[in-house]
């Protein structure tokens, strides 16, 4: 096997939750380009049908679009049935679905309604647990698998403006560490990918919508996710080896394409001996 073959995923079956929009759409496309059969699984049926139709044109016969809600187990079970009928196996699960772009950043940690708090927990953390558990029977028999949980740089920095969201991302790092020892003996690695504040299409749309609403009400634009450190505040480098500077080392906007290389690495045989880890991809904002 050549070193480039280490990154190929021919004949593998990859599930990408939240795979029809935002950054997830780039993960779906990247995995398909690397040879995988890709299940584009998302709560937005229109986006599922548009993204899977577009990817199907480029990768005929290798894309399956499924509408799911990661908080509803029966929809995940239905997805697994469809995958079983089509390919009979799952090799890679990318737990990317989350509530982020649509969340309103606040000026303090306080005042989050219980319902919103619980919903963010249910989607961002319980959804990862449920989706992985439901996919496991089709993964186990393969003896080789990958689970990639999407965390965030805010797992390490916290966020006054998005306290519930940041808490779920800290939990994603920890859940990754709990799953890895259980799945390692089955040949399945579990790692987390922590993006920094990334200008995904959904983040840009939400930011524009909020700015338009504020302008219509004669108010200044509210803080929005996806700027700087990802919580509406200027980026700040922190962590054990941090330099204390107030910006990223690589001083430019993070875009979805910046995340695809690490996602492919963690999904492919190239990362065979890596498990339980979290890789921060944020241009050098936080030193993990
Ligand atoms: N954009 C950023 O700055 C940033 C930074 C760090 C981490 N992240 C994480 O990356 C992931 C993608 O972020 P994004 O910028 O594309 O934001 P996003 O909010 O647009 O992405 C969420 C995706 O999940 C889907 N989704 C939402 N609820 C769902 C549910 N109940 N079931 C299934 N799918 C559901 C959405 O339709 C969407 O496709 C999220 O987990 C987010 O927390 C994003």
Folded structure, characterized:
Helix 4 (114-140) packs parallel to helix 6 (163-183). The chain has helices spanning 22-33, 45-58, 73-86, 114-140, 154-157, 163-183, 201-216, 257-267, and strands at residues 13-17, 37-42, 63-67, 92-95, 145-150, 188-195, 238-239, 278-281, 286-287. The chain has a single domain (4-287), classed as Rossmann fold (3-Layer(aba) Sandwich), CATH 3.40.50.720. It is globular. The strands form 2 sheets. It has a 7-stranded parallel β-sheet, with helices on both faces. It has a two-stranded parallel ribbon with strand order 7-9. Helix 2 links the parallel strand 2 (37-42) and strand 3. It is α/β, with parallel strands linked by helices. Nicotinamide-adenine-dinucleotide binds at residues 17-18, 20-24, 42-44, 68-71, 96-102, 123, 150, 152, 195, 197-198, 200, 202-203, 226, 230.
Q: What is the rounded distance between the termini?
A: 32 Å
The helix-and-strand class reads: alpha/beta
Estimate the strand proportion: 5-15%
Count every beta strand, where a strand is a DSSP E run of 2 or more residues: 9
Radius of gyration: 18 Å
Question: Which CATH class is shown?
Answer: Alpha Beta
N-to-C series of helices and strands = EHEHEHEHEHHEHEHEE
Q: Would you identify the CATH architecture?
A: 3-Layer(aba) Sandwich
Mean pLDDT: 92
Number of helices: 8
CA-based shape: globular
Strand count, sense and barrel status of the largest sheet are: 7 strands, parallel
In the CATH hierarchy, what is the superfamily? NAD(P)-binding Rossmann-like Domain
CATH fold name: Rossmann fold
Whole-number tally of structural domains: 1
């Amino acid at each position: 096997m050549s070193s480039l073959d280490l990154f190929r995923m021919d004949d593998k079956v990859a599930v990408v939750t939240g795979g029809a929009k935002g950054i997830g759409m780039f993960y779906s496309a990247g995995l398909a380009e690397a040879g995988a059969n890709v299940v584009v699984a998302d709560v937005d049926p229109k986006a599922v049908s548009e993204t899977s139709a577009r990817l199907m044109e480029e990768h005929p016969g290798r894309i399956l679009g499924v509408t799911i809600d990661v908080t509803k187990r029966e929809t995940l079970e239905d997805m697994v049935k469809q995958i079983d009928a089509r390919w009979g196996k799952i090799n890679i699960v990318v737990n990317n679905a989350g509530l982020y772009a649509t969340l309103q950043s606040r000026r303090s940690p306080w005042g989050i309604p219980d319902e919103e708090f619980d919903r963010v927990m249910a989607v961002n953390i319980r959804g990862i647990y449920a989706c992985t558990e439901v996919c496991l029977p089709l993964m186990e028999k393969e003896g080789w698998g990958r689970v990639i949980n999407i965390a965030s740089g805010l797992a390490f920095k916290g966020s006054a403006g998005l306290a519930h969201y940041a808490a779920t991302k800290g939990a994603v790092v920890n859940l990754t560490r709990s799953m890895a020892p259980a799945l390692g003996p089955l040949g399945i690695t579990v790692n987390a990918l922590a993006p920094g504040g990334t200008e995904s299409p959904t983040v840009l749309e939400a930011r524009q919508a909020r700015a338009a609403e504020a302008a219509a009400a004669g108010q200044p634009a509210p803080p929005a996710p996806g700027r700087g450190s990802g919580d509406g505040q200027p980026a700040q480098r922190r962590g054990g080896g941090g330099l204390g500077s107030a910006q990223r080392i690589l001083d430019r906007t993070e875009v979805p394409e910046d995340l695809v290389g690490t996602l492919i690495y963690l999904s492919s045989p190239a990362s065979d001996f890596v498990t339980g880890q979290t890789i921060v991809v944020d241009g050098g904002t936080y030193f993990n």
